[in-house]
Every structure is written in C-alpha cells, then in structure tokens.
Amino acid sequence: MVNFRSKLHVALFKYYFEYPDAECYVRELSRTLSFGAAFLSRELATLTNVGIFISSTRGNHKYFRLNKKHPLHNELRAMTIYLVSKKDTKRKDAKREDTKIRERS
C-alpha cells in the first residue's frame, strides 16, 4: 500500500498535501518531482487501486488527484508532515555540524 521508505511516495504526498487541489497527469508530475514517468505511473496506479488517489481521463491525459475522503487521509497527511519536518531537521543539524568543523579548521 503506502511505503514511507519510498522516496517517490514521500515526494508524491508532500506535493499533494502542499497543493491539495492539484490535479496532474503523469508527465507533469514526472517533471515536477524528478522521477521516471513509468515508475510514477505504476505507483500512481497502485495508490489509485487502494483509493488514496482518484484518476480521471481528459483527452489523452489521465489526471490524478488526492482522495480527500479516504479514511486514512488525515493520518497520511500527519505522517508526511512528520517525515518532511524530520528530514529538514536532519539537514539543519548537518549544516550546523559542517559549520562547526569549518570553524575548528
């Protein structure tokens, strides 16, 4: 289902929770998130089958949006926010450590 060890899943949820009304097609997401279109398409199909995403077709494009009515929507949002903030904290700590090392040299 959802794997928060997957960089793609974290990037997808981060993007869609940051822009909750976004409706994007695979190539657009591929450019925005810097992941391969085939990989992204496969993962979106899986997440759509589970009901986390909703897809609709317009012309030749298949658009995906987050299903706000999914029972786990709020939990997924909370986990995404936690993981993103945790990652940012690690980056800040690494920068501080790098600054300390440079000051000692």
- In CATH, the homologous superfamily goes by the name Winged helix-like DNA-binding domain superfamily/Winged helix DNA-binding domain
Report the span from N to C terminus.
48 Å
The count of strands amounts to: 3
Biggest sheet strand line-up: 1-3-2
Instruction: Give the topology string: H per helix, E per strand.
Output: HEHHEEH
Written overview of the protein:
There is one protein chain. The chain has 105 residues and is an alpha+beta fold. It has one domain: Winged helix-like DNA-binding domain superfamily/Winged helix DNA-binding domain (Arc Repressor Mutant, subunit A, Orthogonal Bundle). It contains four helices and three strands, in the order H-E-H-H-E-E-H. Helix 1 packs across helix 4. The chain is globular. The model has no long low-confidence stretch (mean pLDDT 86).
Write the layout of secondary structure elements.
Blueprint lengths: L6 H12 L5 E2 H8 L3 H14 L2 E6 L2 E6 L6 H32 L1
Antiparallel strand pairs: 1-3, 2-3
Which keywords apply here?
single chain; alpha+beta; globular
Short summary:
InterPro entries: WH_DNA-bd_sf. By secondary structure, this protein is α+β, with helices and mostly antiparallel strands.
